[in-house]
């Protein structure tokens, strides 16, 4: 449905550093940085997630990245916490949303709720 999403951040260098580390376990890397505009993260050279350096925090919102398995959810949470994120829900099953809904939630430097989620049953 969406091609890309972008939003302003209050401290561009801090947010850029956070997302570079937090999204790495999901296979996302910074693919493009535009002077005075911000940077985009994505896979295979295509940016689908953008942050801007406008210097103002966005209105609160929630963004969830689909990941292939529960290990990726765990790795995202660990990397985001190490990058300075705040825990907003550790990795775990949340069956109230859907069967096999395994997710983790972190608050980014601006307090935005960023999630990694997979629907794959646990592998034995």
Order of strands across the main sheet: 1-4-3-2
Distance N to C terminus: 33 Å
Q: Identify low-pLDDT runs.
A: none
CATH class: Alpha Beta
N-to-C SSE series? Answer: EHEEEEHEEE
CATH superfamily: 2,3-Dihydroxybiphenyl 1,2-Dioxygenase, domain 1
- Shape, per Cα inertia axes: globular
SS elements, strand count: 8
What does this structure look like?
- The protein has 124 residues and is an alpha/beta fold.
- The chain has a single domain, classed as 2,3-Dihydroxybiphenyl 1,2-Dioxygenase, domain 1, CATH 3.10.180.10.
- Helices cover 19% and strands 39% of the residues.
- The protein contains 2 helices and 8 strands.
- The protein has helices at residues 12-22, 70-82; strands at 5-8, 29-34, 38-43, 46-52, 62-66, 86-93, 102-107, 113-118.
- The strands form 2 sheets. It has a 4-stranded mixed beta sheet. A 4-stranded mixed beta sheet has the order 5-8-7-6, with helices on one face.
- β2 and β3 (38-43) form a beta hairpin.
- α1 (12-22) runs antiparallel to α2 (70-82).
- The longest helix is centred in the middle third of the chain and has 13 residues, at 70-82.
- The protein is globular.
- The model has no long low-confidence stretch (mean pLDDT 92).
